[in-house]
Each structure stands twice: as structure tokens, then as C-alpha cells.
Amino acid sequence: MPDLKCHQEAERLAFLSHYLQDDQPWHTAITATFPDLILDPAIESCRRPQGDTAFLKKCRATLKRLPGNQWFTDAVVDPLNKGKFIWASSGKRIEATDQYWIDEDEHVKQGSKVIYTKKGTKIGWSRLSEFETASYICKILKSEAYRIMQNYRDFDFGSNVTDPNDIQKGPVIIIESGNLVILESYERAYIDCVATGNPAVKYAWYKVQANRIQSGQHLMEESAKVTIMTSPRYTMTNGRLTISKPNAKMDAGYYQCMAENEFGKVVGNPILLSFGMLGEFSNVNPEAVHVKAYEYGMIVCSGISYRPAVTFQWVKGDGRNFIRTTKQQYMFISSNGRLYFSEVSPDDQGNYRCLVTLSGTVENEMKTQQRPSRVSRFIPLIVEYAPPKVSWGPIIQNDFIAAYPSPPMLGHRVRLECFAQGSNSESNPMVYSWEKVGGEMAHNVKFSDLQRVVIIERANFQNEGVYRCVVKRGRSARAEKEYTLLLSAKPYFIFPLKAQHIDTDSHLTWRCEARGRPEVTYSWYKNGQSIDPHKDDVEISRNSLLIKSASAEKHNGMYQCAATNSFGTTFSSAQLRVLKFKPTFWKSSSTSRNFVGSSGGNVSLICNPEGAPYPDISWAKDNQDLHLTKKGDVTSKFNLLANGNLFINGLTQNEAGIYTCKAKNTEGSAEISLELKVLNNLVITQKPVNTDVIVNETAFLACHVSHDEFAELTQYWTFNGYPINTRTSSNYALVS
């Protein structure tokens, strides 16, 4: 999703409002246009990083001069009254007299979003669905326009450092361990934290109480710091914390890394260190399972304690006779550990054993190659006599459709299981299939275990929906069942914090935005500590932090936005620099100061100083002040653009000369001089003429041009309208 980069279109921004009319006070707004997106990302792109002061333009009936086929407006269907329309940014009802539908067909068509488009020779409003894309226009008040320029700033702003490796910046954590499951038999356990920063980053580790993590409070208390003084079993090498002979009672819990240099501190995401455990089966023989022949059956694995998860397998008789459900198709082993029979036969009688193996999860990785396992005592299955039944079923069993893990999680491997009771012979087997109601299976979906299982790798929100399991036997026997898949999600950022480099005394609205299910709550931190709005002179409203008058002494530092829900906490980090220095053209010293324009054309002279506060720009020609203001009048000879560049229209030799750009702010001033040369129009004095030539002989076509001596001339030739590449072609060459 693109960020708002209005500076890239600065020349057009200065006078775009000449083409766009809008209601007060937005007619003076700086605006920019962008490539196609669906509506919600377009709105977010406008609002970031400008906060709540940037919106989509309303786009009434005055976009005729803009390129493009269809443009989002700020108008949408009123969610409370589907027959009415409102401005989304204000919630105000749009009266019929202020609506500009192309025709009634466009007015009544499907779609909740209003666009501005062209139909034949008519230009006006139409409708679009929320999933279709269109171009869009952002607008922001001039009083807030400093945000656009500051968005262009980076850590080298105001610095004369040429090597990117020498640029100084605060710490940013780029690598950290996930949750880790280990065994007490381990000699060592490791958790890692790697951060970038200049000067070099120093690390510290803290053990944080679980109730603080779960409540979103991540206060780094000195008493919780983990060092060799805490225990000689703890050692730290750079950002790696090593725990020797880990002990569940002493070492289990949440750990957080802190990275620090002179610009501030950041904390890492909480890392849960837990100890895997697999208990023992009871030494009491399980009770026998009794089932009538030719009925549905189920054997439950004997109870056993474990952490965090286990996998199951079943054995009949001795240890070599593993149940293979792809061969014994009337059997099914579920992730819940149970062994199901669609129809039990007398041959199924016998002793069964449940084999469990300790395993990790997506969120809790298990670091071991030899995972412990246990085998239960024999569980007898006694099949009581009953006469064979006529083919019956299928009937999808009550335990199914089942989803694992529970609840299904975004990014995890999700497993949907389906199993039916009924006759299931090799000659007339049950056949399983799956459908996604109202949609298609995504590319990350696959099937296993005779189509009885759907596996969704790295599940995403596109996988949500209603899944239908269909079981058939023969031509007429059929059963089906549906399951609605909804994914839970640990918080993740769709708009992480971005570093800000702002002017002293300026205003900043800083936003982060995260998604999660259930909904996330937000908390803010500065240099590893929870922000006190009064002490830190900021205002906080959920995911927005507001600074009304920025001060380096109060506000410089490393900030973090934390998003929390019942599945955990995720941090987003960025540095705030409040700057104050006089203008400089140091970075412009390496660029050309000579500009060339053609007679009758136009040219933009570039003035790109760095300064904080953002400097005022003035221009002089041959030491005579041009007395320009930023009006954006494209018909004037000289135009001072919003970005400080000088736009000169209708060039003549009178505009040739030395131009001086002067930048001034409260800290001082600086200037740079540029030379503009105006070329006379090019005149082709000798044109190519029709030429006859013998095959395989060389032909010369002349093209002579009259031009100014200091102009660089480039010739382009075409053959039947197609360009000739004289550099790569063996048939053509340019000769002087």
C-alpha cells in the first residue's frame, strides 16, 4: 500500500487546485493523485502519515481536466439508509441537488462507493463495489502540509554524512526469537535479540510477570533484569541470552529484550520460554470398549498430561501393527486422539494401544530432535455379535466437522476433519469431497487422508468462509455438513510506526494501526517505559499520539506502539527527532547548477534546501528580487511552487540569467545560485530525402540541425514509425 508521497508531484501540487474546485476551506488544500486501489486502503493511504487531517477529495463535478477513467469520491451509501448518500469524512447527508450522477442507470446500479467517471461524452458520478479499484485524490489543509514535506525526511536530513553506515540513529530490533519450548534435560537454552543502531546497541534482558504481559503492561523494572548476578547460569553475548541447565521452576516465563543506545531504548516482543512435559499413562488397565458388530465405533486414548501439544498414533496388537487409515479406510485417527470406525466388523476385535509424541505448535516451537513419546496400556475392543446390516449411512458423526488448532489462528496450519458413520467396503466405499460455499478453495488448501481432511497452510483471512463436507456412497447415499471457519489472530501491524523528523515547535499526529481478532487495545512507550501523557507532554487516543508543540528536550527518543489482545502483544518501534538548524544547500552542491530551457517552453529551477524549521524561499534574478508568493497561478511568467521551486512559463531570451534561491528560517539563512540558458528553437536545415540504393550497398540519409552551441543534441530515427536502435543494430549507424 503506497504512502502519501506528495513531494514527488510537487510541481503539479502547486497549481492542481486551479483545476479542482471544492468547498471551503479545502479549495486551498494541497492535493495529489495516486494509482488504483480499493477504497479502504486508499483512505488509509491518504491518512498516513498525515493522521486525521487528510481525506479523499469530495470530487463533485469539476475533474474534467484530470487524466484517468474513474476516481473515488468521498461519497458512500449511508449505512443507516441505503437509499441515501453521505460524505464519509464528515458523515453529512448529500442532498439530491449536490449529486452529479451521469444518468439514472449509474445512480441505481450496485455498489456502495461513489466514483467520478466518464460514460461516452458525459462526465459525472457512478457507483463501484467495495472490492473494485479506482484512482483517488488526497487532500490536506495547507496548515497541515508540513507533514508531507516531513514525510520525505530521513535520518540523513540535516547531516553532511555521505556514507549510509555512518548515519546515526536509534535502535531497531530486527531479529528476535519466537516462543520456545524446551525440556529440562537440555544443557542450554538460547533466546536471541538482534538490533541495528548507530552508535552500537547495548542489550539487556528482563523476565516479565505473565499478568503484566497479558494486561499489556510492559514496564521494565530493574528488579526483573536478568544478568549473571541474578544467577551464574545466565550469560549474555551481544543480544543472545544463554541459560545453562534450564529449570522449569526458575526459568519458565516471559522474557523481553531491551536494546539501547544514546538515542533511546526499545523493548522486544514478549518471548515465552516454557518447558515441554509428557507425563505417564496410568498403570491401571483401561476398561474394555464394547461395540456391536456393523455399528459405528470409537476408542478414546487413555488420559495423559502434556505440554504444549502431542500427536497421536494407534497400534493394534503388538507394536508393529500400526493403523494405516489410508489402507484401512473405515478407520480415522483424529487430532483429538480418538480412533474412529465408520463400521466395526468382527475382525476389528483385539487390543489397541495409543502412542503419543510430544510436539510443539506454530506459536511455541519445540527445540529437540528426539521428542519423548509414551505408549498406553492395551485398550481391549470387544465386538459383540450382531447380524450384518444392509448398507447404511453415511451419517457424519457428531464430533465433525472439527477444526484444529482450536481456535483456528491466522498464519497457522489449520486442519478441518470430516468423518462419517456407515457401511464402507472396498467394493462400495464412502467418497469424501469438500466445497467452499460461495467461493473457491484458495491456493494454500490441500487435502489428505482420503479427502477426509482439509489442510490450510499459513491460513489467511481469504480462507475464511463456510466449508461443506460431502460424503457419498454409490449413486444415492449422501450426507453433508457445513462448518464456518473464522480465524483468530494475534495482533499484527498494517501501519507500523515510521520514524519522524520534525521541526521544533511543530505539531505531530503519529498513528499506528494493528489488526487482530479479538480486537486489539493499544499502549504507548517511550524509551522502554509506559508513556505518562502529562509528564511526556503528549496526548494519546488509542492508536494516535499527538504532540502539539514539539521540543527536542521533551520529545526526542524511541517510541513504541504496542497492540494487545488475548493472544499476545506485538510492538512497532520508531524514532522521533525534533530538529532545529539553519538552512543548508550542502546536498545540492553535487548537483548541476546549470539549467537549460527551450524558447517558448517552460522550466523548473530546483531549490531544495534542508532546514528546520522549514525555511521560507525567495528568488532573485540577476540580483533583483522577484517578490514572489506561492499563489500557484500557472498563467504568470514566474511561479513560486509549493515545494520552493521556481516555475518559469513561456521562456524567451529575457529569462536567461543567474537566479538565486535564498532559504531563511529562525536559525539563519543560506542561498544558492543557478544559471538558466534559453535555447533558440531547433531548425532542421537539411531533411532526409527519398533515396534509391542497390541491394547490399550502403545508403546515407542526412539530417542537419541548426542549434545553439551549448545545447546537447540527440537524434532519434524511426523506420516506418518504429524506433531504430543504432547502438545494437548491425544495419544502422549514426555518423557525424
Structural overview:
Among the domains are: 6-151, Mannose-Binding Protein A, Chain A, CATH 3.10.100; 164-275, Immunoglobulins (Immunoglobulin-like); 392-487, Immunoglobulins (Immunoglobulin-like); 489-579, Immunoglobulins (Immunoglobulin-like, Sandwich). 6% of the residues lie in helices and 42% in strands. The protein is built from eight helices and 62 strands. Strands 9, 12, 13, 16, 17, 18 and 27 form a seven-stranded mixed sheet that branches. Strands 20, 23, 26, 28 and 29 form a five-stranded mixed sheet that branches.
Please name the defining characteristics of this protein:
Immunoglobulin-like, 5-stranded mixed beta sheet, 736 residues, Mannose-Binding Protein A, Chain A, extended
Q: What sort of overall outline do the alpha carbons produce when their principal axes are compared?
A: extended
Quaternary state, please?
Answer: single chain
Class by SSE composition: mainly beta
Largest beta sheet, briefly? 7 strands, mixed
Question: What percent strand?
Answer: 35-45%
Q: Determine the CATH topology of the domain at 6-151.
A: Mannose-Binding Protein A, Chain A
Named CATH architecture of the domain at 6-151: Roll
